[in-house]
Amino acid sequence: MTDKLQLPPTETLYAKAMEVSDELKQQGQLDRIKRATDLAVLHPTATATDVFRACEIVEREGCATVCVAPAHVAYAKRFTDRVCSVIGFPHGNTFPNVKWREALMAMERGAIELDMVINYGQFLAGRATLVRRELKDIVRTAHKGGVKVKVILETCYYDPAQIHDACDLCLQYDVDWVKTSTGFGSGGASMAAVQVMLDVCGGRCQVKASGGITDPLVYLNLGCTRLGMGLKSFEALQ
Q1: How many CA atoms lie within 13 A of 163 on its CB side?
Q2: Which phi and psi angles does 39 have, rounded to 5°?
Q3: pLDDT tens, residue order, the chain (238 aa)
Q4: 15 CB-near residues (< 8 Å, 6+ apart)
Q5: Residue 77: which residues within 8 A CB-CB, separation 6 or more?
Q6: What is the spatial distance between Cα 158 and Cα 36, in angstroms, rounded to a whole number?
Q7: Mind telling me the catalytic residues?
Q8: d(Cα 235, Cα 197) in Å, to the nearest integer?
Q9: Surface-to-core class of residue 78, CB atoms within 10 Å of its CB (0-12 exposed, 13-18 middle, 19+ buried)
């Protein structure tokens, strides 16, 4: 895309979040943001203490879910029922059957939502067969168990036409959300990418903005129903 977003340092994101905090409080919008937030604990060195702290926040503040790695699902489930697991994270470039098994194990351990990274390398190369297979198998299995699926595109690597086509593909397999980013790519959410996603989905599935979110209200006002935020950025809004 022409509006690629380079993620700024964590300190910059934190400072920006602090700037908007007072305004959000004055507008009475904090509760709206909290209800839409998947609180992410996805750093490779995240500890059990980090997961526990996030679960406490999810329960206390009424966040949508805590979003963790599959290995942390069972532990997180001890403290909150609202557990989301990432799948194929962060690059999405493993075998469809491996992703399916990872998704199954996360669901068996209590995940109520899955954030799955599609094999965007294959998709962007014009080879969508593997993506179709993983979408079909994981969405079908998840929905059979009452689990919802968000599909992460990693939009920083796409042009608008590719975002359009990826969303259209997801709609064919009845995904529940399309999601912008992992937070581990070259860029995060952008308003331009989100607008394309909303236009394509047209209410047939929901949209989640994630990665470098410093003004969450902007994305909610655009039409997103979920936000991905890390602990530090979320706590700065309080």
Answers
A1: 28
A2: -80, 115
A3: 444 444 455 556 555 555 555 566 556 789 999 999 999 999 999 999 999 999 999 999 999 999 999 999 999 999 999 999 999 999 999 999 999 999 999 999 999 999 999 999 999 999 999 999 999 999 999 999 999 999 999 999 999 999 999 999 999 999 999 999 999 999 999 999 999 999 999 999 999 999 999 889 999 999 999 999 999 999 888 7
A4: none
A5: 83, 109, 110
A6: 25
A7: 115, 179, 208
A8: 28
A9: exposed
Residues of 61-72 as b/e, b for ≥16 C-beta within 10 angstroms?
Answer: bebbbbbbbbeb
10-236 fold: TIM Barrel (3.20.20)
pTM of the model: 0.89
Can you list the pairs that 5-11 forms with residues at least 24 positions away whose Cβ atoms lie under 8 Å?
A: 5/156, 5/187, 5/188, 5/189, 5/190, 5/212, 6/186, 6/187, 7/183, 7/186, 7/187, 7/188, 7/211, 7/212, 8/212, 10/232
Residue 209, SS3 per DSSP? strand
Beta carbons within 10 angstroms of residue 47's beta carbon: 11
CB 193 within 8 A of CB 207: no
Residue with tokens 């399916």: 100
User: Which residues neighbour 169 within 8 Å (Cβ) at sequence distance 6 or greater?
Assistant: 123, 128, 131, 132, 135
Query: What six digits make up the tokens of 97?
Result: 């059957």
